[in-house]
């Protein structure tokens, strides 16, 4: 009985090993936030890194393509018109895309929140000049003007973004997941917005969680999560996680 208990205890101490399917390479890009220049640079690095690899190549974007940086429209244009050749692309939804959709489709008053965390940069990138933070009836006019300015292809892009993606032993999501809740039962709201409850938890889900949303100077690799939002819009560092077999490594713009 003691030997059995000893084996159980030792097994609990064995680090978990995560992998992606054989003959596959996964590239996963963190929060872009309107930095089209960095996205182009990182795409070029990915092309060079993947040269000669003949297996399946996945390129996963964790969301927050827009806001804060000055070139949100250009980021989406690039993704739609110049996808990286030879890759299957997966686009996830960030909280910033959700707020944009809420502003366009629901309540224009949400703009007060959106503009205060970077939304004005997106509005400018679509060709609307706004002085200060508008209120009242001005918001309704801006809502209608923005609807008229945003290309239908962009609206479709924002509307069809996925909330999560599962591949091999990894679960990709924008913000994170609620601890102790099955991955199949996670709420869309948590997957786009959760922060401290997820970041402070040591709970291990069956899959390794790969996320953005919460900025760190360097990628964070823990026993239960990998965070790759390195604050591109102000740090000039856009980060990509690369997964192949049981191995992981990183590419970045600086």
Tell me the radius of gyration: 20 Å
Structural class category: alpha/beta
Specify the oligomeric state.
single chain
Estimated helix fraction: 25-40%
CATH class annotation: Alpha Beta
Largest sheet: 5 strands, mixed
Strand percentage:
15-25%
What CATH calls the topology is Purple Acid Phosphatase, chain A, domain 2
Q: Low-confidence spans: pLDDT under 50, at least 5 residues?
A: 1-12
CATH-defined architecture: 4-Layer Sandwich
Number of domains: 1
Judging from the principal axes of the Cα atoms, what is the shape?
Answer: globular
Distance between the termini: 55 Å
Question: What secondary-structure arrangement, pairings included, does this model have?
Answer:
Elements: H1 2-13, E1 24-29, H2 36-50, E2 56-61, H3 72-81, E3 88-91, H4 95-105, H5 111-125, H6 137-149, H7 152-159, E4 164-167, E5 170-173, H8 188-193, H9 196-199, E6 208-211, E7 220-221, E8 225-227, H10 232-235, E9 239-244, E10 247-252
Parallel strand pairs: 1-2, 2-3, 5-6, 6-8
Antiparallel strand pairs: 1-9, 4-5, 7-8, 9-10
Provide a short characterization of the protein structure.
By secondary structure, the protein is of the alpha/beta class.
Q: What keyword list fits this structure?
A:
alpha/beta; Purple Acid Phosphatase, chain A, domain 2; five-stranded mixed β-sheet; 39% helix; 18% strand; globular
Description of the molecule:
The protein is an alpha/beta fold and 254 residues long. It has a single domain (22-54, 62-252), classed as Metallo-dependent phosphatases (Purple Acid Phosphatase, chain A, domain 2), CATH 3.60.21. It has helices at 2-13, 36-50, 72-81, 95-105, 111-125, 137-149, 152-159, 188-193, 196-199, 232-235, and strands at 24-29, 56-61, 88-91, 164-167, 170-173, 208-211, 220-221, 225-227, 239-244, 247-252. Strand 7 (220-221) and strand 8 (225-227) form a beta hairpin. The longest helix has 15 residues, at 36-50. The chain is globular, with a radius of gyration of 20 Å. 35% of the residues are buried.
